[in-house]
Design brief:
With 232 residues, the chain is an alpha+beta fold. It has helices at 49-62, 113-125; strands at residues 32-35, 38-41, 79-84, 87-91, 94-98, 135-141, 147-150, 162-168, 171-175, 185-189, 194-197, 206-208, 223-229. It has a single domain (31-229), classed as Alpha-ketoglutarate-dependent dioxygenase AlkB-like (Jelly Rolls, Sandwich). It is globular and about 40 Å long. It binds succinic acid (SIN) and fe (ii) ion (FE2). Fe (ii) ion binds next to loops.
């Protein structure tokens, strides 16, 4: 049928990032409004996976993945690092943002331009213009690791959304309510998906179910999540 929009597929995504990069296709995008303030852009970062992973490799060379300790003394199953002017950490003293990597004593590596551009474009398209992330928390999930239900509430200004980019193996995202005991919705996040939550959804409890084994051509046997926040 002439002129009909193509049906989104993993190879031909409903790409909301079209036109931002030279030569990138402009494809009509079909974001999924999960609920008020929470929008999933399926496949938005698809086609940029290798570039994102290249930039990530440089970050991890300076600020390697590590398993942080919870304030209660448990080792988190997800490996973490950060880039930006600040970074999120957890240890016996609690959760907080620090301007230096406690492992190296150096400032966190800077936020690469490709990270910033993607996060700002996604926030803008989700209805949160003027989002300027100062941190990207990098989560590395191996099969068997996950993240229990929590709220992101160590950031100063709750009017800024959270922008989350998924790379590699798929995962089941748990999306609950404002109260811990509220019902929890489950949906899958795939390589290249960008999920933005803010506004009425900013303080929703969320988490990641334990990752199933698998192999992904871009990341190998892991899922990488980039979480952008405006923390300071
Ligand atoms: C997070 O809540 O910090 C990470 C969520 C994810 O890995 O998708
Ligand atoms: Fe979170």
């Amino acid at each position: 049928m002439a002129g009909a929009a193509p049906t989104p597929t993993p190879e031909n995504p409903a790409n909301g990032w079209g036109g931002l990069f030279p030569g990138s296709p402009v494809i009509p995008h079909g974001p999924w409004s999960v609920r008020e303030g929470a929008i999933l852009f399926m496949g938005m970062a698809l086609g940029r996976g290798d570039e994102l992973m290249g930039a990530l490799g440089q970050i991890l060379a300076l600020a390697p993945f590590r398993h942080m300790e919870t304030p209660g003394g448990r080792r988190m199953s997800v490996a973490m690092s950060n880039c930006g002017t600040t970074g999120w950490i957890s240890d016996r003293r609690g959760y907080r943002y620090t301007d230096r990597d406690p492992m190296t004593g150096h400032p966190w590596p800077p936020l690469p331009a490709i990270f910033r551009e993607l996060a700002e474009a996604a926030a803008d398209q989700a209805g949160f213009p003027g989002f300027h992330p100062d941190v990207c928390l990098v989560n590395g999930y191996r099969p068997g690791s996950g993240l229990s239900l929590h709220q992101d509430r160590d950031e100063r200004d709750g009017s800024a959304p959270i922008v989350s980019v998924s790379l590699g193996l798929p995962a089941t995202f748990l999306f609950g309510g404002i109260k811990r005991r509220d019902p929890v919705e489950h949906f899958r996040l795939h390589h290249g998906d960008v999920f933005v939550w803010g506004g009425a959804s900013r303080y929703v409890f969320h988490g990641i179910a334990r990752l199933a084994p698998g192999h992904h051509p871009v990341t190998g046997a892991q899922r990488i999540n980039l979480t952008f926040r405006q923390a300071l």
